[in-house]
Give the backbone structure.
Amino acid sequence: MGNLRSVHNAFDYLGFKNEIVSEPEKILKASKIILPGVGSFRQAMQNIKEMGLYEPLCEMVLEKKVPILGICLGMQLLAKSSEEDGFTEGFGFIDDEVINFDIDKKYRVPHVGFNSVNLNKNNSTLFKGLNDNTDFYFVHSYRLGKIDKPFVAGISEYGEKFTSAFEQDNVFGTQFHPEKSQSNGLKLLINFAEL
């Protein structure tokens, strides 16, 4: 469900060894995990479970504390649930739900294009070396429901404020696409790769 090749190409460009995998045994050997995605929350969770990836991902993140970075839909999947296509449970790695934008009709949904990220967390891992209000590329119709959680690392505004990045222990997420955000996004990917 997503932009696997563009993320893979970004890490190749940066010189970091990476591999696209869909086998549970390979996930269990990973030193870091990136979960990119675009499309339907419900379909993505269904695919993850049908491919036997749900339990290995939970083991790696919750028990072995392997760093994971969710990108766009991948970030949303790390939350407890989504209201997209009715209620669907996510991984529950962070305590939040995914909801639709509740904004004035003058704002088109999906939210597409570059938008600034206001840093909300001191000593951020993902944003190390990046300035406040740095621009990143977004494409999304849904968002996390709360911006007042301690794990919120970045906040953006599109008709309303929303969580654009989070960090909680070994769990990281960006609503934006760092792999499509030019030098700012590449810096963020380096920060994650060098954990």
Remarks:
- The helical segments are 4-14, 24-27, 41-50, 54-63, 73-77, 182-193.
- The longest helix spans residues 182-193.
- Residues 4-193 form a domain with the Rossmann fold fold (CATH 3.40.50.880).
